[in-house]
Amino acid sequence: MQPILSCRDVRVSFNGFQALQGVNLDVLPQEVRFLIGPNGAGKTTLLDVVCGKTKASDGEVLYRQTENIRKLQEHEIVHLGITRKFQAPSIFANLTVWENLELSLKQKRGLWSVMRAKMTGEDKGKMEAMLLRIGLMEQRHNLAGMLAHGQKQWLEIGMQLMQNPEILLLDEPIAGMSETERHKTGELIHEISETCSVLIVEHDMEFVRNFSKQVTVMHEGKVLCEGTMSEIQQNEQVAEVYLGRRESAC
Amino acid sequence: MTVLGKFWSKQTIIAAISAATLALSGCAASNALNEEDGAAADSSDTVKVGVLHSLSGTMAISEVSLRDAELMAIEEINEAGGVLGKQIEPIVEDGASDWPTFAEKAKKLLQKDEVAAVFGGWTSASRKAMLPVFEQNNGLLWYPVQYEGMESSPNIFYTGATTNQQIVPSVTWLLENKGKSFFLIGSDYVFPRTANKEIKAQLEAEGGTLVGEEYTPLGHTDYGTLISKIKAEKPEVIYNTLNGDSNVAFFKQLKDAGITADDVTVLSVSIAEEEIRGIGTDILTGHYAAWNYFQTTDTPENEKFVAAYKEAYGDDRVTGDSIEAAYMAVYLWAAAAEKAGSFDVDAVKEAAGGIEFNAPGGKVTIDGDNQHTYKTVRVGEIQADGQFKEVWNSGEPVKPDPYLETYPWAEGLN
Amino acid sequence: MDKKKLGYWLFFIALFLGPLYLTEFRLALMGKFLCFAIVALGICLIWGYTGILSLGHGVYFGLGAYCTAMYLKLEAANGQLPDFMEWSGVSALPAFWVPFSNPIFAIGASLLIPALIAAILGFLTFKNRIKGVYFSLISQAVVVVFVTLFVAKQDWTGGTNGLTNFTTFLGFSLASPLVQIALYMMTVIILGASFALAAALTNSRVGRVLSAVRDGENRVRFLGFNPTSYKVFVYSLSAALAGLAGTLFVLQVGLISPAMMGIIPSIEMVLWAAVGGRHSLIGAILGAVIVNSAKSFFSEAYPDIWSIFLGLLFIIVVMFLPNGIVGAFESWNEKREKAKRKGGTADAADSVVS
Amino acid sequence: MAVVITQLFNGISLGSILLLIALGLAITFGLMNVINMAHGEFIMAGAYTTYVVQQAFSHYVPAALFNYYYIVAIPLSFLIGALLGFVLEKTLIRFLYHRPLDSLLATWGVSLILQQVARSIFGAPNVAVTAPAWLDSGLTIAGAVLPYKRLFIIALVTICMVTLYLYLDKTAAGRKMRAVTMNRSMASSLGVSTKKVDATAFAIGSGLAGIAGCALTVLGPIGSTIGTYYIVDAFMIVILGGIGSLIGTVFGALSVGMLGTVAEFWSGASMAKVIVFVAIIAFLQFKPAGLLSARTRSLE
After folding, report:
1. Does pTM surpass 0.95?
2. Which chain B residues have a beta carbon less than 8 Å from that of C6?
3. What chain C residue is nearest to B4 in terms of C-alpha separation?
4. What would you report as the CA-atom Rg of chain B, rounded to the nearest whole angstrom?
């Protein structure tokens, strides 16, 4: 199977600090890939590079093997089908839940198209289905800013899913969630992976253990190793830089 | 909820309140405008005139004194029995240094208060803004400030100097007494640009040379570069039409650059007694200004005028050219009304030609053709006490010629 | 028709009937204020809805006014050179003045030139992701550039005196009270239409994108929208509204000068929207009328106090009424309704009356 | 030759004046990200302080000592500016740290009030300040006169820069200030009282405006509106230099000063103003973060 996303020797530097020092990573279609690693390993920076928030100083980010998206703007990357959920909930607090989803509809996003856009029955159906899926049907006319923290996270995931992404980037999606919410989120992620690839940064090892197939470990701006969780746990290097220190916490 | 309650939804209440505020605020504004209306009832023994200057904003610095002088003249005339047996009732309005406001207030004075005449304005911009209002409503404006000429509205009387009563003779005086090479500096607006265009034509005709011409934006405060241009060109005379604050910066920095009144003569046309105090006498001493009136002008009328002005507004106040022009404007109007036997605008205009008045600055006469006044031109040297010493005058009042029609060299100018 | 719409209709009809209950003088004032209200609507769109604070709308207002004033000046000059050009030593009409003898071109230009300049400035700055206070300060620098240019190019623009002394518009005498009434009514209609347009825009999906841009421009990018084009659009629209207001202003007041496009008028324009309520279109209209009425009143009665009052108004609105009069009213209303829900219906009628 | 020297000097002199005006803003705006539109009125307050000190000297101090009034006026102007800044921070600014656009509007209101207050106290017309005699005349180099007043301002701004640098870099209070401006929450959790630091920083920035006002009295007018002549230029210089970079502000002021004098020499003052502002606006399109920027993406 051809990888849908390939990073080739991606480098990023901030004022001389090398945040990414040549990352290589392949993500296959419909794969759920976890990114783990100690703080400062460059996990979030890698997501930033893929979604266009941070521009790589060197290297290639290939989408479907052919298109180098390294220099595209954020919205152009979204148009290709790569969407991103941030760590802190980034919903629009002064719009209602319904309006948040409306903006997330897969649609032509040019000014002219949006000006003429009309809410079709099909769109409505899609949005209602999504509201049910993320459990916010009752809150649909509330301002998004008034939702509980977990609900905001769900709304944001819903907003990404509305766009039928090819690749979904998630940054610590379960932070601040209760145990049941975590479980639900884990199941949702696997449900999503039936239609798209998911790249997740996560610190919660139990969550990773329960829901991961492939895990990539990053350390000091590089990929340290890849494999299943059990393979990783047996890797001595990993244990040294990362798991070793966290063993008791897990 | 009741039907009524339902009807008064949030939005309707907002709209209703909006409408109410709208009406109220409109009234508030107009009430203020109407506050003089109560006095209109006994209009039989008073005649209303408008006094319209900037009492707030940037121009208030200059214009407040004009209002003071006009009110003083009105009071003096009233004490002497009024005009045509009626007391003059001044209605003071604030132009707020904002040209549309001048137009708005002029309209109010003419339409609402139906004043017989308005004394007001300072900047050309404010006069230009008021001009259509006076022409459309057939009102009478008395404008008391020296200006760039090229105007003669049938509804305006100009009691300040036009260019041939200030600039033209002072240039001739400079050419004869101070030197042939001129450097022109001015603030970047209408008066300096128009004045300098005339000066250039005059220099060419009378054998002077132009070595530089520079304009700086209003409020400009760094004259380093301009002064090095002056140094490079070594003029004998700097003709200065800078305005307001820029004068302070220019003179301070000129002195610092080592240029004194002994090296170059600077003649200014917008520095009067009041401005000298804000710049500092120490740096101005020895430079010149051209006006029609100085506080030191030696006439019996002026002695009385200066004493009365200080009596009324404080010992530390000084008079000046525009203040005098504002003062005499009221007297000229009163004399014209007396002669016409009526306050009717057309009758006053008709009667005004040839009216004479012994103003503090000497005898003035209204020119019936262009509604300007004959005035004596004076050049003064600034003294250490902040007053002028007159070094030259035209001897007799000069006939106003706003379009410079009697000067052959000015032919191509308009 | 829902009540909200009914309320707005009543409001605009009340304005439209102004000539019935306002004197000629007061009508002229109101006409001027309503021009300002159109500017305030545009400010509300970019500031309240999109989060762009422009301190340079005086320029767009002025440009619009100058375009129409050029036409009026040419009509008054009656085929000859405008008076100020004559005494500035210009011998022939500058080429760029020529098309302004056509009123349709002039009025079209009064909308399009501000919009175009706003689009160029907006495109550059927004594309480079300059926003917030940086944009505000740059817009202020643009004011300095335009005002200095308009003052310095006296032979083309009339300098500090500006353009004034017009006679007719499309052959009708501007001095005639009937023409002034017609212009007033036209202003009300255009204000109403601008209001309807702005309301439609803010209630559309584009409006929601704009709100989203205000709340989190970067997040909007990750939904696949390019905020630049939306911001450029709304900024240009707002500039066009200011230009339109300038046209109506110059027709009614008969005067435009660089002083009216300066930094202080530009900031006052923002104050109008702030006082009324930056998030409310009707608030912007109210704010413009109320602030300017207060200005007329105060500068009349207490000329010295006006600037202190204006200063306090800025501070009070920012500190205590961040959503302006309409915002204050809305939160008062919400409290009242909450209290009503608690207290039952018995005293509800009373509170409505009071 | 003399013209070249004079013009070069004029450029540096204008740059130094602009720097003196912008230096306070480099702290309040550059480091603290507060838009204080009343900064110009703190300049005005410094200028009026100088006027008052001069009046007091001419009335109560022996004439022989008159020329030293300026030595008293400089620190006093700083104190008055700092006091005004401190009060403004405590009453207004501190509520608006997260609403920069609102602080812009509120401080604009403050500036209107301060201007009117000054008019009520000192009257609408300008007041005259006589520069001390030891600043009269100038240094002559190759036929070019370098006025002592302008040299003095260059020296003054250099002293201010160096003092500021030493304060920020070498004292504990200064390091705290930098820590707060770099990472507010981190500094706060390390036990730095951010409130105190904010107030101090704002007072210092405002005090520098007071010094600028004092210096300007020797060159220009002293009236209630002098602050408005400089405020837009000063903000543009700080943006041009790069937010958060004092050295950037120095470069910004000097390049604006140089460009301004060169452009004025070739075209005239009005066009020079237009050219300078257009150049700044255009430059920011290419380099939105300014000449030097302490942060990677400061315009975000």
Report:
1. no
2. 12
3. C349
4. 24
Can you tell me the distance from the alpha carbon of D44 to that of D49, in angstroms, rounded to the nearest whole number? 8
- CA-nearest of C102, C68, C22 to C252 is C68
Tell me the CATH number for domain A5-246. 3.40.50.300
Say whether residue A163 is in contact with chain C using an 8 A CB cutoff: yes
Q: Does D269 touch chain B (CB under 8 A)?
A: yes
Considering only alpha carbons, which residue of chain B is nearest residue C337?
A: B10
Note the CATH number of domain B43-161+293-376: 3.40.50.2300
SS3 of B74-86: the string is HHHHHHCCCECCE
Question: What whole-number distance in Å separates Cα of residue D249 and Cα of residue C209?
Answer: 37
Partners of residue B28 in chain C, C-beta under 8 Å: 293-294, 297
The 10 Å Cβ neighbour count of residue A181 is: 18
Q: SS3 sequence, chain B? A: CCHHHHHCCHHHHHHHHHHHHHHHHHHHHHHHHHCCHHHHHHHHHEEEEEEEECCCCCCHHHHHHHHHHHHHHHHHHHHCCCECCEEEEEEEEECCCCHHHHHHHHHHHHHCCCCCEEEECCCHHHHHHHHHHHHHCCCCEEECCCCCCCCCCCCEEECCCCHHHCHHHHHHHHHHHCCCEEEEEEECCHHHHHHHHHHHHHHHHHCCEEEEEEEECCCCCCCHHHHHHHHHHCCCEEEEECCCHHHHHHHHHHHHCCCCCCCCEEEECCCCHHHHHHHCHHHHCCCEEEECCCCCCCCHHHHHHHHHHHHHHCCCCCCCHHHHHHHHHHHHHHHHHHHHCCCCHHHHHHHHCCCEEEECCEEEEECCCCCEEEECCEEEEECCCCCEEEEEECCCCECCCCCCCCCHHHHHHC
The architecture CATH gives domain B164-292+377-413: 3-Layer(aba) Sandwich (3.40)
Q: Which chains touch D (3 or more CB pairs under 8 A)?
A: B, C
* Residue B364: DSSP 8-state: E
User: Which residues, 6 or more positions from D286, have their beta carbon under 8 angstroms from its beta carbon?
Assistant: none
**Cα–Cα distance, B121 to B108 (Å, whole number):** 15
Q: Which of D17, D137, D226 sits opposite B258 (nearest CB)?
A: D137
Per-residue pLDDT of chain A (250 residues; tens, 9 = 90+): 788 888 888 988 877 778 888 888 888 888 889 998 888 788 888 988 898 888 888 888 888 888 888 888 889 998 888 988 887 777 898 899 999 999 888 888 888 888 888 888 888 898 999 998 888 888 889 898 888 888 888 888 888 888 888 899 988 888 778 888 888 888 888 888 888 899 999 888 888 888 888 889 888 888 888 888 888 888 887 777 765 554 444 3
Q: CB contact, 8 Å: C121 with chain B?
A: no
Interface of C with D (CB under 8 A): 53, 124-125, 128-134, 136-138, 140-142, 144-145, 148-149, 151-152, 218, 263, 267, 270-271, 274, 304-305, 307-308, 310-315, 317-319, 322
Domain boundaries, chain B: 43-161+293-376, 164-292+377-413
Domain ranges of chain A: 5-246
What value of ipTM does the predicted structure carry?
0.88
> Is B14 within 8 Å of C29 when comparing Cβ atoms?
no
Chain C hits for A52, CB-CB cut-off 8 Å, are: 221
Tell me the shortest Cα–Cα distance from A74 to chain C, in angstroms.
6
Q: State the Cα angle at B14 between B13 and B15, rounded to 5°.
A: 90
Residue in C209, C214, C218 closest to A114 by CB: C209
Query: Per this entry, what is the length of chain B?
Result: 414
Residue ranges of the domains in chain D? 23-235
Take residue A117 and report the two structure tokens written for it: 């856009």
Contacts of B221 (CB under 8 A, 6+ apart): B245, B246, B249, D216, D219, D220, D221, D226, D229
